[in-house]
Amino acid sequence: MTDSTITSKASVLVERGTYQKLLAFASLVALLIGFSIASPNFMQTSNMIAILQATSVNGVLAVAVTLVIITGGIDLSVGTLMTFCAVIAGVVLTFLGMPLLIGVVAAIIAGALCGLCSGTFVAKMKIPPFIATLGMMLILKGLSLVISGTRPIYFNDTPGFHLISRGSLIGEVIPFLPIPNGVLILFLVAALTAYILNRTVLGRYTFALGSNEEAVRLSGVNTDMWKMRIYALAGGICGIGGILIASRLNSAQPSLGLGYELEAIAAVVIGGTSLSGGRGTILGTLIGALIMAVLTNGLRVLSVAQEWQTVVTGAIIILAVYADMVRRNKSA
Fold first, then answer.
1. Element (H, E) at 146
2. pLDDT of residue 17
3. Cβ-based neighbours of 235, under 8 Å, separated by 6 or more
4. CA dist., res. 47 & res. 218, Å (int)
5. Which conformational region is residue 210 in: left (phi greater than 0), alpha (psi within -120 to 50 degrees), or beta?
6. In the chain, fewer beta carbons within 10 Å around the N or the C end?
7. pLDDT in tens, 84-127
């Protein structure tokens, strides 16, 4: 399989997702209109900012999961990996007193190394991605509690840390548009990841592995190496998510993380990425993340009980997976 063949195949698969992206965008618009009619408080500027703030963390995790799912895998560890990276940042910045930049870099490197471990389990040890990342999820949850001593780590002595997520560079220039920095970081991460997927060798092999890994291997490509690189990249992106959540809370909460992976996976599937691999876009994932954030926020504004919000989220995940199965059957 030549690079030109892989590029052509990837382009065709991306075009197939156009309809799903349009459908997801239409669903997002419908939700916005519906909640606006149901509650006059929904469209207030402060509430829109809150939705964008919530999307920033889940969106970054969803971008990371997109890479893995396109290869035909799954990553259940992104939530606890995010927490682990936040704890690492807390250790470096609070316990060791290192500069802000070093703490951020340490969190991203920790995420990439953990992602590389997951990729090694899947590629070299041939452990199914579901089991490998489930085990990694539990390992990282335990390590977060051990390293932090089961207590939150606060960043009160790290000047400017809270501004990473909650500050607003745009708001300083345009006062009536106080978009949080976390949202800008999400868009930057999404744009860079989209460029990698569509314009680099790593991106071409990401789609190729999900489409037909055996054919890629028989063509002489070291599929194990590329798969490990993809998992490492996804882990590094989760490290960015860890920085965002820690900055938003101004603390690293070691017990946080479980449940984030489900919302991230739901956002990815809603956005048109196929769970069977080989097809997906970052733009679709962003739309899916916005849908999840709008849905959660809208239900909260309407004073729907927390337990029913959980029920709705679970139903959305089931419907998203079923829709993906229907799409696969139609394209078969």
1. helix 129-148
2. 58
3. 64, 81, 111, 112, 113, 114, 115, 116, 118
4. 52
5. alpha
6. C
7. 999 999 999 999 999 999 999 999 999 999 999 999 999 999 99
State the pLDDT confidence band at 13, using cuts at 50, 70 and 90: very low
Please report, for the chain, the start and end positions of each structural domain, with discontinuous segments joined by +: 3-331
Identify the CA nearest to 130 among candidates 65, 207, 86, 58. 65
Kindly report, residue by residue over 19-31, the tens digit of the pLDDT. 677 878 888 899 8
As given in the structure block, the two tokens for residue 269 are: 């599937």
Q: Which of the two residues, 174 and 116, has the higher pLDDT score?
A: 116
Residue 13 near residue 211 (C-beta atoms within 8 A): yes
SS (H, E, C) 157-190: CCCCCCHHHHCCHHHHHCCCCCCCHHHHHHHHHH
Can you tell me the distance from the alpha carbon of 230 to that of 119, in angstroms, rounded to the nearest whole number? 8
The closest alpha carbon to 181, from 157, 165, 161, 197, belongs to 165
Exposure class string for 9-38: b at 16+ Cβ within 10 A, else e: bbeebbeebeebbebbbebbeebbeebeee
For residue 270, what are its two tokens? 């809603």
